[in-house]
Amino acid sequence: MATYKEIKGTNIEVLASDPSNPVLGQVWYNSTSNVLKGQNVTTTGAWATGGNMNTARRTLAGTGIQTAAIVMGGQAPNFNETELYNGTSWTEVNNLNTARNANAAAGTQTSALTFGGEPIPSNGNLTESWNGTNWTAKNTLGTARYGLGRAGSDNEACLAFGGYTGSNSALTESWNGTNWTEVGDLNTARFALGSAGNTNTEALAFGGGNPIKNETESWNGTNWTEVNNLNETKSYVSGAGTYTSALAFSGLTPSVTANTEEWNGTNWTEVANMATTRSQLASAGASSTSALGAGGELSGPGANSNATEEWNGAGSPTTVTFTDS
Predict the structure, then answer these.
(1) Residues 75 and 191 placed together within one structural domain of the fold
(2) 9, 198, 240, 286 from 245: Cα distances, Å
(3) What 3-state DSSP class applies to 223?
């Protein structure tokens, strides 16, 4: 039988810890855990446990990507804490200027925007910009609201839509780096909705309340168009990805759900559930194959979570442990 070196031209590496950026097909022996590992791709999507947040909370906002995320705000009571995730652990950094919950966020870990929030009207129109170190107050939303959807991976080109103003809102506002401008309304007014999208010219809105909904709408920069519904009707649903490749996870049906659905641009398909059943999570992720969910409320009222889960969709890299079975 041929040896690994004869096949690959090199011996299996012996490492004290897993490599930080393994390549597909790489194999190594972890001498700390005494196991043989390798880098493969997933054939089906799955959630994996990540590092816990420092502060357990619900109705917080998040943005960024799975390995470089930022979360801010949340409840209960209202928080102003900001935390950064490096793919392994969370670090507390400088706080928001105004504590709030049910706010939304867009942008990246080093250049983010958060807007809206509860209570209204005092916090509902506030906008703050993050430069990687500090939060700075910016021009306010045109309409104060909380529980709104968002899109944008650039904090100078974001979208805010839906929310609660005292009643369900269909309003959409576009941010140009300085001001918010009202643009086309959603077809279905809602709050506590899921959302995805990387610019202010493409977005996806899904679910929400109240009453709870499964309607999905796609934004093309000018208009919202109704497309195929979620399989599960729910509010306080979290989302990640783009308007053609998105992920919807967790929420209230009205009971708490761990359900995850994947959008391919036409239809939603149910995929693997989250390990921890909860709602009102922060989310991050620029694609449906690599996303993050953090915090949220567990099944009991006021039972907040600090758990983090990382989504690795089909075809995404993953480290596997080899066994002799």
Answers:
(1) yes
(2) 39, 11, 9, 9
(3) coil
Please state the pTM of the whole predicted model: 0.85
Q: Kindly state whether residue 322 falls inside one of the protein's structural domains.
A: no
* Residues linked to residue 92 through DSSP beta bridges, in sequence order: 83
3-state helix vs strand vs coil in the chain, percent to 5: 0, 45, 55
What phi and psi, each to the nearest 5 degrees, are found at residue 109? -65, -30
Nearest to 224 by CA among 170, 157, 295, 150: 170
CA–CA separation, 82 vs 185, rounded Å?
31
Q: Look up residue 173 and give its DSSP letter.
A: E
Question: 9 - beta bridge partners?
Answer: none
- Chain segment 219-271, per-residue pLDDT in tens: 999 999 999 999 999 999 999 999 999 999 999 999 999 999 999 999 999 99
Amino acid (1-letter code) at residue 188: T
Same domain, 55 and 25: no
